[in-house]
Design brief:
2 copies of one chain form a homodimer. The first copy, chain A, is mostly helical and 161 residues long. Chain A has helices at residues 2-8, 15-42, 47-58, 64-71, 75-87, 108-129, 134-146, 150-159; strands at 62-63, 91-95, 102-106. In chain A, strands 1-3-2 form a 3-stranded antiparallel sheet. In chain A, helix 3 (47-58) packs across helix 5. In chain A, 30% of the residues are buried. The structure holds a DNA duplex (30 and 30 nucleotides).
Chain lengths: 161, 161
DNA sequence: TATTTAGGTCAGCCATATTGACTTAATTAT
DNA sequence: ATAATTAAGTCAATATGGCTGACCTAAATA
């Protein structure tokens, strides 16, 4: 089975090459989150706050339930982070048409923070991608997309519909 | 400045497209770590244990200091995780030539766990990459590498020398 | 009218990280 | 030979971001 696997696996997909990708994913993700983390620290927020702000900013009038299904955390985990964001007026809650639900939007303050944080990551990515061809970038996105679970793919498609 | 930026930015690098990449990085990294996390949970370990096992397995006779510089965490953080791994005989310590240092290697038990965890990720990546061309994969790796900080690049180069 | 759903809340727990202070033993520099 | 630096370890306190379980309210739906 191992031998068969080796026979069927192209050289550029051997274990060593794949392990390099594992390492690059680790390093790149860590370095990618470092910038916003530093900014967040100054205002006593963490990465979890950024994620909430990010997705609320992306998708106006998100409900709590939808947000939870994107983040895949429990409502108790979200609660602490979200109530801080609401108390400090980064996020505004309103009642939905279904009056059991609540809709989330960013306040102006929230939009400003969102922009400040995401701009760091956007600039970083743009600076990297400028060195590559449109085809490379297209391939990169397609591979990343394929790395995502079916369930998360649905979420991604949903918020980019 | 914003206008100038827009003029100079190719369409496929506009903010919307880059935000998609931000989201794909979030979803893919989360889904990528999910498999090992589940296995680790059963033996009361966490992701931090996997990282230590991974890099010790990669680079035999790593010292504590070198490991810390790869992981970029404090020795106090490493301490808890590492002492568990040593106590439970996944990792074996020995004194280095410089007798202040310690060398880390995986025991057989450690190698087995390393393999079990990494195989999940290796298979996942291989299954994804099989759908792509060698060129796409080469581009993917190069872009990921460019996403990494200079300092981390050095670490990556070091462990893959 | 009964059940389900969306959201909230309290309490306790765990994992992973941090800072700061201090120790020991070995190596290196003066 | 002594002083300074380095590698590693340890203790204590703190923060963040998760989790489970139990329980509540109000609104929508069956």
């Amino acid at each position: 089975m191992a031998d068969l696997n080796k026979l069927l696996t192209p050289l550029f997909l051997n274990e060593g090459e794949i392990r390099k990708i594992i390492e690059l994913l680790f390093f790149s993700y860590r370095d990618f989150t470092e910038g916003p983390d530093k900014v967040l620290e100054k205002i006593n927020f963490g990465r979890a706050h950024h994620r909430v702000i990010y997705f609320v900013g992306k998708q106006n009038n998100l409900t709590i339930k939808e947000l939870l299904s994107i983040l895949k955390i429990t409502k108790q985990s979200l609660s602490r982070v979200l109530s801080q964001l609401v108390n400090e007026k980064y996020i505004i809650l309103s009642v939905g048409e279904d009056k059991r639900t609540k809709k989330l939007i960013l306040s102006k303050k929230g939009q400003e923070l969102e922009k400040r944080l995401s701009e760091i990551q956007i600039k970083k990515i743009r600076n990297v991608l400028l060195k590559f061809s449109e085809m490379d970038i297209y391939g990169f996105k397609k591979i990343l997309y394929e790395m995502v679970d079916d369930e998360s793919k649905e979420k991604f498609d949903e918020i980019n519909r």
